[in-house]
Amino acid sequence: SRLLYAATYGKGIYRYELPMTTSLDILTEASPYIYPNPTSGVVYLPDHNKFNSIIVYDMQGLRKASFASSPILNLAQLNQGVYILQLSDKETVVSQKIMIYH
């Protein structure tokens, strides 16, 4: 049923019809495992074969590095800070935050 009822103390009972669901976003897989995080430079991506490309963005959205699919990423050339790794294949784009310290 799409009906929601709410009772209040002394003010009565309210009925609300919920809108019909037209789509669902289903999370089928967890975020990719990237370690160590935080890192001083080199990170490991065991599930690298699921992705075609890896792009690194800073927090202003500027592209800082890109990689083909690889189990080891060397991020040592980046300044200390927080970055977003964007991993993608033909159908999916996954983003994960990573912290670099020196």
Number of domains: 1
Fold-level CATH name: Immunoglobulin-like
Residues in helix, %: under 10%
Radius of gyration, in Å, reads 22 Å
Please tell me the overall pLDDT. Answer: 87
What fraction of the residues are assigned to beta strands by DSSP? over 45%
Q: So how many helices?
A: 0
Question: Layout of helices and strands, plus pairs?
Answer:
Elements: E1 3-8, E2 12-17, E3 42-44, E4 53-58, E5 63-68, E6 72-74, E7 81-88, E8 93-100
Antiparallel strand pairs: 1-2, 3-6, 4-5, 4-7, 7-8
What does this structure look like?
The protein is elongated, with a radius of gyration of 22 Å. The chain has strands spanning 3-8, 12-17, 42-44, 53-58, 63-68, 72-74, 81-88, 93-100. The protein is mostly beta strands. It has one domain (29-100): Immunoglobulin-like (Sandwich).
What would the keywords be for this entry?
102 residues, Immunoglobulin-like, mainly beta, four-stranded antiparallel β-sheet
In short:
The protein is mainly β. It has strands spanning 3-8, 12-17, 42-44, 53-58, 63-68, 72-74, 81-88, 93-100.
